[in-house]
Amino acid sequence: QVQLVETGGGLVQPGGSLRLSCAASGSSVSFSTMAWYRQAPGKQREWVASITSGGSPDYRGSVKGRFTISRDNAKNTVDLQMNSLKPEDTAVYYCNKVFPQISWGQGTQVTVSS
After folding, report:
1. What is the DSSP code (8-state) at residue 61?
2. For residues 1 and 100, what is the distance between their CA atoms, to the nearest angstrom?
3. Hey, which residues does 24 pair with through a beta bridge?
């Protein structure tokens, strides 16, 4: 059974950067399309970015050009580099398989505020 652990969140000022990391354990996710999601207070969880097993990325429009998703199949990790952060990026960030999704990790809090 795959378990996911997200790390790297924190408090950052607008315009700042953070790098999130998702570590999978229990089984390899190297053949799965993986994604980052986020959930802001009072809102539904939303898809942020995804990456295929071969490394092809896709992004929601509001983060395109600011966020970069990457993966290291040898390490069983998926990262999200977030630049030019905005207050509206504030949320708990999670990673998961695109399909079928598995149990969610605890997420990592990202707060963008001056």
Report:
1. T
2. 13
3. 4
Give per-residue pLDDT as tens, 7-66.
999 999 999 999 999 999 999 998 999 999 999 999 999 999 999 999 999 999 999 999
Extended beta strands in 1-114, E state: 3-7, 10-12, 18-25, 34-39, 46-51, 57-59, 67-72, 77-82, 91-97, 108-112
Helix, strand or coil, per DSSP, at residue 78? strand
C-alpha distance from residue 35 to each of 9, 16, 96, 109, 113 (Å): 16, 22, 6, 16, 25
Beta bridge partner(s), residue 47:
37
Return the half-sphere exposure (C-beta side, CA atoms, 13 A cut-off) of residue 105.
24
Is the link from the previous residue into 57 a cis peptide, with omega within 30 of 0?
A: no
Distance (Å, rounded) from C-alpha 26 to C-alpha 77? 12
